[in-house]
Structure formats: C-alpha cells, structure tokens
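Pilot study result, target chain (449 residues):
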Amino acid sequence: MIVVMRPSATQQEVDGVKRSIEEHGLEAFLSVGEERTVIGVVGDVERISHLGTLPGVDQVIRVSSPYKLASIQEPGERTRVRIGPVEIGLGSELVIMAGPCAVESREQLLETARCVSREGARILRGGAWKPRTSPYSFQGMGVPALKLLAEARGETGLPIISEVVDPADVEVFDDHVDILQVGARNMQNFALLRAVGQSRRAVLLKRGLSATIEEWLLAAEYILAAGNPNVILCERGIRTFETATRNTLDLSAVPVLRQKTHLPIVIDPSHGTGARALVGPMALAGAAVGADGLLIEVHPDPANARSDGDQSLSFDDFGALMDELRRLQFVRAPADSPPLPEERNLAASGIDELRDRIDEADARLADLVQERAALALEVQRRRDPHVHGHDVRRERDLLERAANGTSGPMTPVELTVVFDAVLRASRSVQRRHAQSALNGEDAAAGNGR
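Predicted structure:
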C-alpha cells in the first residue's frame, strides 16, 4: 500500500500517519519528494483501511507488486530527478552523461571534461574507485580523483557522477559528487543500498549482471525505503550466452520499466556492448526506445586508457555521436522559454463568468484547429500528391515545445496528448486530400483512354 500525502500536508500530519501505521504492527517507509511525501506500507494492510480518513492524506493506493515505492502509481506520473540545473525524467531533454571510465590524471580529466561540455553533455562521469574483476587491474585513484572531479565541475559547471563501492565512503562522496553510482556488481549489496538511501545525493542504480527486472526494482526499493526518492535506473547489459559483445544490452527493459515504475531510466551502451564501434548505434537505439539519458565513456586516448579503453569513444567519435543525436532531434540546444501571456485575475471571477470564458476559449480553439488543418492542407496541395505531407522533425519540435515551453495546470504528458491528437487529425485531412487527388488523376487518365 502507498499513502500519498497532500502537497500542503504538515510534518505533524505525516508523523501522525506514520505513527498510526506502526501502531498496527506494520512498517512505514517515507519518501520525501519536492512536492509531496509518499509513505510505503509493508504488512497486512487490511488493519489500516482507515488511513484515507487521516488529516493530510490525499489518497491511499493498493499496490500488488513487491516493490511498493518503486511501483508506478498513475501512468501519467513520473519522477523527475533534478541535479542542479539538469532534470532527468520523462518529458525532459535526453541527458548525456559522459567522461572517462576512470580518472587517471588531472590533465586527462580536465581535457575530457572540456570536450564533453563543449559537445553538449550535461553531466560528467568519472571513476574514483573501480571494482575490477582482476585484483591486478587499475583500481582508481580514490579520494584524489574525487577532488579532481570537483575541480572539473568548478571549471565546466557540469554536475558529477561517480561510483561508490563502500558504504563507509558515502559521506566523502556526498562532499564531492552530485550523483552516487551503484555499479552492477553492487546492485544487491544491501548495506551499500541502505547507505546511499540515506544520502542527500541522487543515486544511479545499475542493473546487475544477471538480475531480473523485478530484482532490480527491489534493489531500488531499498534506496527509496531508506528515504532517498532521487533514484535513476541504468540498464548496462546483462550476461547471456552470447560472446560477440561484452554484455547483451537489453533495450526492451526501457518500455517494460515504463509500465512498472515511475523512476527515470538511463542506458549505458559502453558497458552494454564493450566495443567502441557499437556504442554509437546502441546509443541511438537507446534514445529511440525512450531512455531518459545515456551514460557514455569518453577518453582522450582510448588506446592507452587504464580502464575499458576498448569501449571508450575518442573526442572525435563522441562529437560525431552528439551530432547524430542532434540531427535526429534527441538532443537539442537549450532555447529561451517564450514569455508567458499576462495572467488574468481568476480569483476575482464568478463561476458563470469563468464558464463564459471557457466557451470563448473553446470557440477560439476550434477556429485555431480548423486554421491549422487548412494550412496543413494547403501544404499538401502544393506537394506532389504521391508525397506524404507531414514533416516528422517539425512535429517533434512542436511536441517538445508543448511539453517544455509552457506553464499551467496541464502536465507535459497531457499537453503532448492534446497536440498529438491535433497532429493526427491534420494528417488525416492531408491523406484524404492526397487520395482524392490521386483518384482524380486516375479518372482523368481513364477518360483519356
């Protein structure tokens, strides 16, 4: 069961609900978000059917899945994790996290940070400690690497993500980085999951080498249950019988997770393939399937990298990938938001006046929709009737502007649904006209015979 508190709920009301749950012998797990608090309940929930009547409670949702806090509550409600100026989640721009697998030197890190920042990455990655299969492999620079990462952030403004491997190190990571990464080998290190759950930083949780999606979400549940709501899931490939790639990158995990969880989803094509030539194609595929971000390894000299050089992109390779992501409209240059129209004083209006204004707005909206369809039809008339009339890139721009460039009571998802319906109706008009034109050509040809 999940208890969703009202945005206006006081701390006293939250404590009262938690106390009521625990008095009935159940466990209560708090997840405090930017707008509201959610309380996960574990145990025989039949004893607490009264929770919906307590002060401050907005709604009580019964959840049948074993992961209560990670489970999706409403299809339109998704968590967006904010890291400084960067927001990761459905409806936000695809976020590129790029940098070296391991921090090797100040020069190497700063050179890479400048490159990925210039090309459009939003977050800098870099390993301070590296859990390696062989004890003789480079294990990372440790705390000095964290200090170098903080220096790179100061120069470029990019937030930092780095992997933490020991629960005892979480505090020092909190002082230097913006996102704590839990690697695939530690997905079920429950002491570490609880420790990062108590951190004030966002957490990126990688899928384990052979983990099912349910096991992955239950690992996220540990972090959420410990009080940290800012969890990002990262698909980095799983171990299968295939040996042509380092791992098998499970892109189907993205749409599956969309049905199961509200958490943001990132794809790591570097570890998912283990081969430099495959990183670009799988990054594009991850963006196309709907990932919220990409985690990519970049190195100034991949051939001489001390860690994972075979899967690291050179600066030129990374620049080419970013160009391709821009060309396909997955990554866009940030644009200034348009000025908002002057707001009317709705509070001073009576209900009849409000309804009259709704009627006026509906009439204007109908006229605007018809005007748009007429313009789309004129575009089609000026084209060859054999050519499809709509421009996918322009439509993507429209949907992105609808989701990100306005403010008001409608969510980005709701605005996108409205504009998508308008676009589909306009295309229907274009198709009907094109078919009529083709039928006319056929009839004229028949008369000529």
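One observation from the pilot: The radius of gyration is 26 Å. A full batch analysis is planned for the follow-on phase.
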